Amino acid sequence: MTPPRARPVPSADRVPPGLRIAAGYAWRLVVLGVAAYLAVSALSLLALPVIAVFVALVITSVLRPLVDLLARVLPRSLAVLLAVVCAVAVVAGVLTLVGTTVAGEWSRLGAELRGGLGRIDHWLTGAPFHLRAGTVTDLRAKLGQFVTAHRSALLSTALSGAGRAVELLTGLALAVFCSVFFLHSGDRMWRWAEHQLPARARPVWSRAGRAAWHTFAGYTRGVLIVAGTNAVLVGIGLAVLRVPLVLPLTVLEFVAALVPLIGSPIALAVAALVALAARGPVVALLVLGLIVVIGQIEGHLLHPLVLGWSVRIHPVVVALSVTGGAVLAGVLGAVVAVPVVSVAWAVITELRDHGPPEHPG
């Protein structure tokens, strides 16, 4: 019996398998890119509540262990109230202490800075710069002339900044309000949200939620520990070198260290400028040396020890995340980029390793 002849494949179907797979991935990536763009655009229109919820989650992750500890001997509501009041008191106390320190040292610091500017001017006239005398003084005079010529524009910018400050306070109040409820009944809120989903999807969302919260809380607590350690080391170093405004510069280091990789060097660069004006180039170089020392301690000891158990992403990914976040959303984007990428990777890893739950057919 003669076997049937194979039907010729139409020319339209003669597509190489590799090209077909690439095309399939391409249109899916395009769809994901459009969806991501629409999501980012929607979030940018709702920036205030989104940022407030993010800050509320940060506050919740930091205060949750204290609330759980107090709830063993106190009612949950009272434990939440006590923890929030203590946190507000600590932040207000630190800000008050910084303001008092700056006000107390302002007159002495002004004299030191004026003398320091003269020393810098004299230093720049020598080797290896050989600039003309009065360079710094002329720069200060030109800065004064610029302020005088653009007084109205600067005033308008200041008024716009005042509006931003009101918006910031509104967002902060909303964040504290949300964090109180997250601390008090966050578990019940999550269980309620899960029960609004189809029964088949609940186990997946439960695992994803646990992985996301574990990573986010671990990152938040860890980065605060790293920032606090950096601030203590910087404060000790600046005090030993007798740099003015030790406390404000220490607080600046703590806040800046919340941005991985780039925050701490920027804060120490500001401290080096203060040291250069007040104590001279030798002390400023020693402060710059702190950037290298603290960078090594942070990168090789603190981050692996404190963050290694909760955040498992490569330093290159961290650097690219911070850079991309800064390009897309400025300082705020740089702050939130790493936790967002860490949470997304933790969820993907959890779902990939365990897979979807099996259901009988």
Task: Describe, in plain words, how this protein is organized in 3D.
With 361 residues, this protein is mainly α. It starts with 16 loop residues before the first helix and ends in a 7-residue tail after the last helix. It is globular, with a radius of gyration of 28 Å. 82% of the residues lie in helices and 0% in strands. Helix 3 packs across helix 8. It folds into 2 domains: 47-196, no CATH class; 204-355, no CATH class.
Strand content range: under 5%
Number of domains: 2
SSE order? HHHHHHHHHH
* Approximate helicity band: over 70%
Q: What is the straight-line distance between the termini?
A: 43 Å
Question: How confident is the prediction overall: mean pLDDT?
Answer: 78
Structural class, by secondary structure, is mainly alpha
Q: What shape does the CA trace take? A: globular
The total strand number stands at 0
Uncertain spans, ≥5 residues at pLDDT below 50? Answer: none
How would you classify the quaternary structure?
single chain
Radius of gyration over C-alpha positions, nearest whole angstrom: 28 Å
What attributes characterize this protein structure?
10 helices; 2 domains; 361 residues; mainly alpha
Summarize the structure.
This protein is an all-alpha fold and 361 residues long. The chain is built from 10 helices and no strands.
